[in-house]
Design brief:
With 332 residues, this protein is an alpha/beta fold. The chain has helices at residues 14-24, 40-52, 64-70, 85-94, 109-122, 131-134, 136-146, 164-167, 176-179, 187-199, 288-296, 306-324, and strands at residues 5-10, 30-36, 75-78, 98-101, 126-128, 153-162, 203-211, 220-227, 232-238, 245-253, 256-260, 267-271, 278-279, 330-331. The strands form two sheets. The protein has a nine-stranded mixed beta sheet with strand order 13-12-11-10-6-9-8-7-14.
Length: 332
Amino acid sequence: MPKKVNVCLIGVGGMARYHIHNILKQGETTDIAAICEPSEKMYALAAQLFKEAGLEAPPNQPDLSLLLKQYELDAAFIITPHAFHHDQTVACMEAGLDVLLEKPMVMNAAEARSLMKVRDRTGKLLVVAFPGSLSPQIRKAVEMLRAGELGKLLSISATVWQNWGPATVSTWRQQPELSGGGFLFDTGAHMLNTVVDLAGEEFSQIAAWCDNYGRPVETLAAVIGKLASGALVTLHGCGETIPSCASDIRLFTDRAILRTGIWGERLELQRHGRRRMRKVPLPPSLGVWEQFLAVRDGSLPNPCPPEVGLRMARLYDAIKASAAQGGKPVEC
């Protein structure tokens, strides 16, 4: 039996606890050896998940530099506020660890380029935890599109909605110095990334409008874009909805209509001559950690390297630049 991967979890807030559920289902491959969490409350909530699974909670070392010296580790899963991603990832890679890093990868393009240099210098693996890019659904859709099976891309329509604004009041997510942006940079990051994955090309122009809705960061956004090929894209985010969290992406080609979601939560296809969409059958997935392990053992090419983080940072910068000018189109 292959040796288990010893991983440390850096940050065990709400999103991390979602990941812990899935990682504990993969006990034959993974040992969560340590946790790095400065909040006693967050650590206690995470420890309860291990207790409910009949396991002893991993020890908590809130000081990352000490943790990296004290434990024998193979990998780190970083799930902290966005402003900490860069430095924590650098520390882990320089300590010899492979890294799975929550999205958005970094705060800006300069940090993205920095991580690419550290990745190249250390030779360590860096995967950005975009569930869309890592999902069998989006990978299958990309495979069909790149093979020309669905024909010429005409346009993409994507939307994401959530009661993000009301739900994140008084949290770090609405503090720009920690979050780097609002709804479009947080939950909406999945939409930006998955759309560009499906498109397979860069944007040439962006026009965008954002609204903070009285909050410190944007919670509403409407974006119109043109891809390098001339295909058109609309991106819509509403972070002020009634309690909900969902998405929809429709991709139109001259041979088919493809429907998916920003997290790869579905894949449906309507080919020319068909009257309705049909589900594309794919194997189930236990989420981003399972896919990270597949990349790490060489059975899956990395769908989410740091170049993906740079791509998203550039796109978000273009959106902000256009929105700051009242929707004036900007070159990408």
